Amino acid sequence: MFRENSKLELLKVAKTRFAPHYILLKRLTLCREALSTTTALNSWRDWAKQGDEHTRTIAQLVVDTIRDDDFWDEVENILKKRNTDRNSLPVIVASMYGTKRMVHYLYSKTPSELLDLGNGLDGVSLLNNLITAELCGVAG
Predict the structure, then answer these.
(1) Residue 9 — pLDDT band, cuts 50, 70, 90?
(2) 33 vs 131: CA distance, rounded Å
(3) Which residues contact 83 (CB under 8 A, 6 or more apart)?
(4) Which of 55, 73, 2 lies closest to 33, judged by CA?
(5) Which of 9, 63, 82, 95 could form a disulfide with 129 if both were Cys (CB 3.0 to 4.6 A apart)?
(6) How far apart are the C-alpha atoms of 137 and 100, rounded to whole Å?
(7) Which domain of life is it from (predicted)?
(8) What single-letter DSSP state applies at residue 17?
């Protein structure tokens, strides 16, 4: 049902050194409209009704969560938070590990003002990590 309403797939993220939850939450935000459409379909309601009590309970929880603006606000807040272990943005943590594809992805999703040199050392840290890991050109 979901695939009929979305060009994107929900991801099952492989466990890595960092960021699997970040990637999953980001993908959820990109699929929000398709998730909402899917759970509004008669076929979704029919599927939920045909299930056992546990399935019906989970289906209702999914619907309630997708409709909950506070949930989506919290997801956005989480995506903006820093890695608590290092007090770093996810893109900076990725750059410390030298993972080029992840750095590129996270850089594209990090608000540019968070990396502005006038707003602290995050931009300097990112640049330093990219040079050290020989990943110059990733951010551009």
Answers:
(1) low
(2) 39
(3) 18, 89, 90, 92, 93
(4) 2
(5) 95
(6) 10
(7) Eukaryota
(8) S
Cα–Cα distance, 85 to 123 (Å, whole number): 18
* Placement of tokens 């935000």 in the chain: 29
Other C-beta atoms closer than 10 Å to the C-beta of 130 total 21
Torsion sign, CA atoms 31, 32, 37, 40: positive
Burial (0-12, 13-18, 19+ Cβ within 10 Å), 7:
exposed
pLDDT tens, residue by residue, 73-107: 888 877 776 555 556 788 887 787 777 877 888 88
> Which two tokens mark 41?
């379909």
Token pair for 25: 């939450």
Rounded distance, CA 69 to CA 75, Å? 10
Report residue 36 as tokens: 């909402």
